[in-house]
Structure formats: C-alpha cells, structure tokens
C-alpha cells in the first residue's frame, strides 16, 4: 500500500480517537444528562422496575435507591412515628414497620382516601382512611402522637402542586427538629419525567421553602444519583 494510504488511515484513526475522547469528556461534564436519561428509561420500563418492586411480597412502587436512603435516614434519626400520606397497597408502610422492628422502636401512621384490600398487617402500623388534608384527619393524626414523640412525615398522595403544598403546610409543623419531611415524586412535571403533568411536588416544595420554614434540602439523600424525590428530602432544623 502507498505511503499516502497510511497517512490517510493514520489521520482518520487519530481524528476518530480524538472525536471519541471529546464526546466522552463532554458526557463526563454532563453527568446530570446521563442520570436524567437513565431516570426516564427506568420510568418508561415501570412494569419491570418500580411497579415490580416489592417488600416481602407487597408492592412498594418506589425506587430501590430511595428505599435504601430511607433505611439509612430512619436508622440515623430513629423517629418514634412516621406519618405517611398515601398508603396504596401498603408496601411502603410495611417496609417502614419492618425497619422499625430492626431498629427496635417506631410506628407508622398511614393515610389514604381509599382502603385497598389485603393491606399488610403489622403491629406497628395504623391505617387511617380519609383525605390527608381534611381537618378531621389532621386532628386524628395529632391525637395519635404522644408527648415527646420524634415525628417524621412522608408525603406520597395526590401529586398536584396545590395538594402537596397544603400537606407541607399542615404536616410540616408536626416534624421534629432533626427529623425529615420527605416529599415523594418530585421528578414529575418534567423533572425529568411526565412533563405534561403540570406543576407538582417539586413546585410545591419550592413555594413552601420560599416562605423560609425551618427546613433545608438534604442532597446527601440523593447520593445514588437517581432519586424519585430529588429536592424533596427536607430536614427540619
């Protein structure tokens, strides 16, 4: 082969390697794009990912990354009560109760407007039927709290901004200093999934925090990069 052929081939190889290195470095500079793409893919395959995630046989419908973050959070803060808005099939309440078994303390108050059949039963779980924002429900939850209880709250019911914002304002004051108010599914509304959903949990969090309540966003709970609750892990000061 001619010298010209080898020069052309060598040049093409160098340019190809350089181009690949540039593209690779470009993606390395944009890890959030990689995370978002994985997040979208994970959600699009929901039937085999979060919709097929179970705790001891019961549907949980959460990211395993977030479930692990909850486990660390509960062990560190050791709340006496976790108030959960949004029971659905009871998998997350069952998961929290199981963690409390291992910790040796804690109970779950789980609220939903509908009562699903065959909810998992556990001595640490109390199920309440009704709207999480109904004044009567707020009174009922408060009646189940004992003086000195360390309280944590997880919001996972109606994901429209108005409802979540109302929950934040009603349940935020119940959360004990050092404990968490977790707003689930802040990824909705195009952050990065379901852009047509409209204003949702994340927008509610932003408006809530704009009022300067005693909460800060704890990004360390998103250390696994992909979280359904990005910006929604709120720690009370």
Instruction: Quickly give the CATH architecture.
Output: 3-Layer(aba) Sandwich
Inertia-based shape: globular
As for the number of domains, it is 1
What is the H level of CATH, i.e. the homologous superfamily? Vaccinia Virus protein VP39
* Share in helix: 40-55%
List SSEs in N-to-C order.
Answer: HHEEHEHEEHEHEHEE
Strand content: 15-25%
Distance between the termini: 74 Å
Q: Measured on Cα atoms, how large is the radius of gyration?
A: 22 Å
CATH topology-level fold name? Rossmann fold
Count of DSSP helices? 7
Q: Which spans of ≥5 residues are poorly predicted at pLDDT below 50?
A: 5-15
Total number of strands: 9
User: Averaged pLDDT, please?
Assistant: 92
CATH structural class: Alpha Beta
Largest sheet: 7 strands, mixed
Provide tags for this entry.
Rossmann fold; two-stranded antiparallel ribbon; 237 residues; alpha/beta; seven-stranded mixed β-sheet
Structure commentary:
The structure is a single chain. By secondary structure, the protein is of the alpha/beta class. The chain has one domain (47-236): Rossmann fold, CATH 3.40.50. It is 41% helix and 15% strand. The chain is built from seven helices and nine strands, in the order H-H-E-E-H-E-H-E-E-H-E-H-E-H-E-E. It has helices at 3-28, 31-44, 64-77, 91-103, 135-144, 161-171, 201-210; strands at 54-55, 58-59, 81-85, 107-112, 125-129, 151-155, 180-183, 215-217, 233-236. The strands form two sheets. The protein has a seven-stranded mixed beta sheet with strand order 5-4-3-6-7-9-8, with helices on both faces. Strand 6, helix 6 and strand 7 form a beta-alpha-beta unit. Helix 3 (64-77) runs parallel beside helix 4 and helix 6 (161-171) packs across helix 7 (201-210). The longest helix is centred in the first third of the chain and has 26 residues, at 3-28. The model is unreliable at 5-15 (pLDDT under 50).
